[in-house]
Specification:
With 168 residues, the protein is mostly helical. Helix content is 80%, strand content 0%. The chain has one domain (2-167): Growth Hormone, Chain: A (Up-down Bundle), CATH 1.20.1250.20.
Length: 168
């Protein structure tokens, strides 16, 4: 579970951080515009996570982990293939955000719960802390990789292919 949590933390951070690069460099949004444009995806995470928790209590974590990872990967595939250089927020960007938010809401809580699910009660806190630290390390590396790939002047649409491809 820690390897999956590390990978998911890395992929999530890469995608989320890349949104700002794309909106600013390709679509020429201001930083406040980019922040507002990205808001619907993260706003969807909490309600989906609550619903996913209820479902996981009945069917287990595995279906949500697999389904959430597939939904999240489809978001990365959409961002890889669909948005172009002309801003088309409602038809090109928003659907990918909604897929991403739903995928994170399905996957992240199930990763955390599955990581500690079979631990003895006296090891639960340590197991949870290790899992969350692993996710944070993945997130840090995801941001670092994003900066490595996109942290230069003159970004073009093609510069995002490796990053979104890695997310898939």
């Amino acid at each position: 579970m820690n390897v999956a949590t590390f990978s998911f933390g890395m992929a999530f951070s890469m995608m989320f951080f890349a949104f700002f690069f794309y909106m600013r460099a390709i679509w020429h949004y201001t930083l406040p515009q980019a922040g507002l444009a990205i808001t619907p995806g993260p706003s969807l995470v909490m309600p989906v996570a609550v619903l996913s928790g209820l479902i996981a209590a009945r069917v287990g974590h595995r279906p949500l982990l697999v389904g959430g990872a597939l939904v999240s990967a489809s978001s990365g595939l959409r961002f890889l293939l669909v948005p172009g250089v002309e801003p088309q927020y409602l038809t090109h960007w928003l659907p990918g955000l909604m897929l991403g938010g739903a995928g994170v809401g399905m996957t992240l809580p199930s990763l955390s719960a599955a990581a500690v699910n079979r631990l003895p009660a006296d090891q639960y806190a340590v197991g949870s802390a290790v899992n969350q630290a692993t996710r944070q390390i993945g997130s840090v590396l995801g941001v670092a990789l994003t900066v490595l790939l996109l942290g230069h002047e003159g970004l073009r649409r093609g510069d995002f292919a490796a990053l979104y491809g890695a997310h898939v």
